[in-house]
Amino acid sequence: MNNHLSEDQIDDLLIGDLAAEPTAHLSSCESCRTRVAAAEAPIASFKAVSLAWSERRSATLPPQLVRTASPAWHRHAAWAATASAVLLVGIAVPMAKQAARSTPVAATAPLAKSSAQSGVVTASVQPAVQPQPAGARTVAASYSSQDEQIARDNRMLQAIDRELDASVQSPADAFGIDPAGSRLTLHGRNAPVQNLD
Amino acid sequence: MQLALDANMTNVQAPAERCSSELDDIDALVRTYRPRLLRFVTFSIGDADLAESITQDCFLKAYNGREKFRGDCSVNTWLTSIALNLIRDQQRLQKFRFWRQARATAIDVNDAANFLPSHESSAEARILAREQTEQVQAALVNLSANQRAIFLMRFADDMDLSEIAQTISMPINTVKTHLHRALKAVRAQVGGTH
């Protein structure tokens, strides 16, 4: 009587569903073990090679999951922070407006405007509201110190202009020509307007 | 004696708690399961690039839904079931080309045979492994989606029959039937035995 495993029993063995009797036969039959090994080999090769392939592929991928995975508590914290910021702005803006109404001088900072034609910074202080007599002395002192600062800035700018003018060589210098009777300033700000006619 | 028993009881974590902590560390989760999961998805759909995308979605879905994991199966089984659902979603939406149309972008595992541990196999053995892999791969093309998924779960991921039945939501006898058909097809392709 031939007790060797059938092909279906070999399949059962590979699947992991072989009955006890054929299993007992397998332990004592070299021929059947060889057949089982031959049936297993291609699947084992596929398993090993495909795993090597996927491990290699996984190793070359950038670890971007951590960045893309946003935990729930992160989202909640972001929402809470946004809500807090909106609430703070909602409270702070009306308070700031109210403070500006009560102290108009502080809110009207003097404007410094540069003049492109003259190159001189001029003070242009235009308070929106006339200062109250009680604070007039303080405000006047503040304006005076700002005027002095502006004057110092103007002097410094003019000194810089002169320094730059002296260091820049005009192409006309090589020919000993003074095209406009005087050297043009680098920025043209302090140069007198020439009559081209 | 009682103290020792208490110490053992405090050191033993419940399976759900242990798995939940494993799911909390997404780096470790990806490091541990990505190669197996990527292989499962890749050889299920036959498109390596799309498989990477699905694998990534799978990890994100698992991580975001880790609170729902009850620990009544292994993490690998849970991840595989998520991957299987994502694959089915893709199949329904026909967002990818199926195996038969995917030959142009077929998975090139030929190079992978060269990365098999050299101390375990000679050059001849690696050539043989490459040929056998190509034959199994060719056989997988002709299987149905369920047969292919079940074959991969059993023979690539070493999942037992009950795990496969749980993952794919099928009776265990149906799983066996699919496995028998898949195995016959693969063995016929490889050795012409059936």
Give an overview in words:
The complex is a heterodimer of chains A (197) and B (194). Chain A has helices spanning 7-15, 20-28, 30-59, 65-68, 72-102, 104-107, 136-167; strands at residues 111-114, 121-124. By secondary structure, chain A is mainly α. Chain A folds into two domains: 7-59, no CATH class; 110-197, no CATH class. With 194 residues, chain B is mostly helical. Chain B has two domains: 11-97, Rna Polymerase Sigma Factor, Chain: A, CATH 1.10.1740.10; 121-194, Arc Repressor Mutant, subunit A, CATH 1.10.10. The longest helix of chain B has 20 residues, at 26-45. The model of chain B is unreliable at 1-12 (pLDDT under 50). Chains A and B meet through α1, α3 and α4 of A and α3, α4, α6, α7 and α9 of B.
Summarize this structure as a short list of keywords or feature phrases.
heterodimer; A: 197 residues; mainly alpha; 2 domains; two-stranded antiparallel sheet; elongated; disordered C terminus; B: 194 residues; Arc Repressor Mutant, subunit A; 70% helix; globular
Number of helices of chain B: 9
Give the distance, in angstroms, between the N- and C-terminal Cα atoms of chain B: 61 Å
Q: Please name the CATH architecture of the largest domain in chain B.
A: Orthogonal Bundle
Order of helices and strands of chain B: HHHHHHHHH
Strand content of chain A: under 5%
Give the C-level CATH assignment of the largest domain in chain B. Mainly Alpha
Number of domains of chain A: 2
